[in-house]
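Problem 3 from the worked examples.
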Amino acid sequence: MSRRHVSVLVRMIIAALLLGWLVRSGSLDFGALALFFEHPALLVANLAVFVGTYLIAAVRWRLLLRIAGVELSFRRAVHLTFTGAFLNVVAPGGVGGDIVKAIYVARDQAPARRPSVYLIALLDRLLAMAGLVAVAVVLNIGVRAVSGDSRLGEPTTAIALLAVVTLVLPVVGLVLVRRFAKRDEGPTEGASRFAKLRGRLVAAARLVSERPALLVLSLGLSIAIHVCSIIWFSAVASAVLDQHVSVARMAVVYPLGMLSVLLPISYAGFGVGHIAFKQLFAMVGLSGGANVLNVYLIGQIVPCLFCVIPYLLLKREGVAPSEAELQSETNR
């Protein structure tokens, strides 16, 4: 068993233990999932949100690839994006859908352009997070201005810190690289991981600085995705808790909670994310955060499994990445 497989197994065990603890403590009830069967309209809306957000994500990735000088058809971008959604569920961790779809695109490019394709995959993830934080900042300013609710203080402070890390510092770094990068013509590749990371960051910043309009447009698409997700999360919370849950409240807890889901501690964020949402809901005077997240996550993960169809269509092309190729790109 490889180290990667051991890592996934450990995360699955952690997720199972945390979920078991939540069920025993009465904080998690899987019976809430019956909502999708009791209210078919919720199921239809869930599928619409899933498809819509991934289509927007495909457009964003296609735009970002243009920064690297790569033109990808919309159909191919959608095909690879849904394939990536499937792989992110069945193979979370080091080798996920972002890497696989980047490999498919990079293979069709000249060798000198391939590193840029992988840098775009990283940039795509960073913009997804930046869009989430940007939405949280704007909505939180409005929430505090209108409500003045002191219970929103702790999450809002945390979101402000995230905004500095994901929005302010990257913009400052991009400006500095745009102004001074030409003075730094030394080798960006080195024996140490720090030297390699520095080289990649500088290379990515140079690429982005050449097409700022595409970057801004891509960030706008990320914001659109998260606005849709927060509105839908609020609707799910209202259905699960059987009470009106405002979008404003969910704008406070959703960003921090989803960041906890992304932490590489448990399988697909299960357990860790449930505990985080349980606490975050309590901060804004609500209960049942674990149940709400459970319904939301399952509602987004199950459709990902049906994305096995575009994945199998790629397999039929006979050019699926080998295990060695996947490992090589993961260690980049």
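Problem 4, a separate protein:
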Amino acid sequence: MKDEKTIILADDHQLFAEGIFSMLNNTEYKVVGYAADGIALLNMLNGFVPDVVLLDINMPRMNGIESAKKIKALYPDVKIIMLTMYTEQGFYNAAIKNNFDGYLLKNIQRSELIDAIEKVLNGEKVFPPIDNNNLVIDKSDQSNTIGAINSLTAREREVLKLIANQMTMAEIAEKLFLSQHTIETYRKNLLRKLNQRNTLGLALLAVSNGIN
């Protein structure tokens, strides 16, 4: 058996995390740490840098895209594989744009996960083809997205940038010297104008379009 390669897993669903531990049991890949949110993940890496990080996108305190970007900046040799249920092309594109190493859906088989880990450790990228019916093509044309972003007011764009930087509504209100109710109104307007369902969608849309 080859020398064990170390993995840290970040996901706020403990049962899923336990499933990953089970998948990798008795392989050359050893899960040495688990974090339930993005901040805990970064703190963990202060003490130990693994070969691979597997992480979800939707996590508390700091989402997976932002966590992965920080990891790549601090530890460029660490391989990053997004392991998620999100099938939207925008998230997929953000992972490619930020030079992550892979993007896998959580319903993959054990053999597929092990194969993906082996490939990224060998310097390959693991991104399933966009037209393989596992990932859906974003129905909103990219030009429409750019147009929607360009239509934002200066204040809306400022609020969007602060959302992308993981600030809460209360923190944004304090920074901009506005009421939290006013900031919440801006957030609702952004959701409507940019056709997003939640704050995470706003943050990832901003990051994937260079607003951060």
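Solution to problem 4. Residues 5-121 form a domain with the Rossmann fold fold (CATH 3.40.50.2300). Confidence is low (pLDDT under 50) at residues 136-141.
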